[in-house]
Design a protein that fits this description.
Shape: globular
Structural class: alpha/beta
Distance between the termini: 43 Å
Oligomer: single chain
Strand content: 15-25%
Strand order of the largest sheet: 5-4-6-7-1-8-9-10-11
Radius of gyration: 20 Å
Order of helices and strands: HHEHEEEHHEHHEHHEEEEE
Largest sheet: 9 strands, mixed
Number of strands: 11
Helix content: 25-40%
Number of helices: 9
């Protein structure tokens, strides 16, 4: 374990990740971030939260970022624009569509890889991806703590580039019911004062962040808008003790409110396209910075394209 952490630390210092190839996101990270490497907008260990209502493009953004992570950086003498690193996905609701992800990956590779070599490069990329299904918050926390074991067993020759939880909100209602039940159902064996299961997930993510420094991508529901009448809709954080890094008085402020064991590096709030339009919008924010950005993208049968 210590040897794995040491090797990961040394490799992380010498090998920057590279861009995400979402131009608006990369430009926003360069403008607002503090990464000294000109080659990598995201820093190792950064946490990216993608929050929004259903059908607003969150999962497709996750697929695109995952493809960037597992694609090779080079194939023969060709630049593939990937990180060439392993990625571990925790699929909390059983909705990860392997066929759709493979299609998006293939579409990105086919522009640079000769047709006869494309199947091999796709399979090589897919071998860097592990999708693990979990059925509860506690199982999710335990599985995240076991990431070093998964890395050693599944990807012994690869660095870990990304850990994804899609979605961190899946067990919100069942956990909330379990936490509130003792108050309405007296018992001779009351639950301890802190009956918050999700805190174990935050703790586990922090430990993986500290030891292996992957980029952590978390998709999250948008439940309660901060201002329904605003042109850009942001959402209050409904998970606890998940970080809530933005003040809620206004919709465009990106100022820190409290310290967290898992601080958010960048936040994307997705919104559904207006009726009759196909273009999705992701609003970019970074805690502690008032500057905001915007990424536009379309989703169709062919995949995801950015404007």
């Amino acid at each position: 374990m210590l040897a794995l952490q040491l090797l990961t630390s040394i490799a992380s210092e010498s090998a920057p990740l590279g861009p995400t190839h979402i131009r608006a996101l990369d430009a926003f990270c360069f403008t607002t971030g503090s990464n000294p490497s000109p080659e990598s907008p995201l820093r190792l260990g950064d946490v990216l939260e993608i929050q929004g209502p259903p059908a607003s493009g969150k999962t497709h953004l996750v697929y695109y970022l995952l493809a960037t992570c597992v694609m090779p950086s080079h194939h023969l003498s060709l630049s593939m624009q990937g990180w060439g690193r392993a990625a571990i996905v925790f699929d909390t609701d059983g909705s990860f569509d392997t066929r759709r992800f493979k299609h998006i990956l293939s579409r990105r590779l086919q522009n640079t890889v000769p047709g006869d070599q494309l199947p091999g490069v796709i399979e090589e990329s897919l071998r860097r991806l592990a999708v693990l299904k979990v059925a509860s918050t506690l199982q999710l926390a335990v599985s995240i703590l076991n990431v070093p074991g998964y890395l050693a067993r599944l990807f012994p020759s690869h660095e870990l580039g990304m850990v994804v939880v899609d979605s961190v909100s899946t067990f919100y209602w069942s956990d909330r019911f379990a936490a509130e039940r003792p108050a309405s159902a007296p018992s001779s064996n009351p639950s301890p004062p802190s009956n918050n299961r999700f805190r174990h997930v935050v703790t586990a993510l922090h430990k993986v962040q500290s030891s292996l420094s992957p980029v952590i991508v978390l998709s999250n529901w948008g439940l309660t808008p901060t201002n329904k009448s605003a042109a850009s809709t942001y959402y209050r954080q409904h998970l606890s003790p998940f970080p809530d890094p933005f003040r809620q008085e206004g919709t465009n402020l990106a100022l820190p409110t409290e310290q967290s064991t898992l601080p958010i590096s960048y936040h994307i709030t997705t919104s559904q396209p207006p009726s009759g339009r196909q273009r999705f919008i992701g609003h970019l924010r970074r805690p502690g910075r008032e500057i905001t950005g915007q990424v536009e993208f379309t989703i169709d049968d062919e995949g995801i394209e950015f404007g």
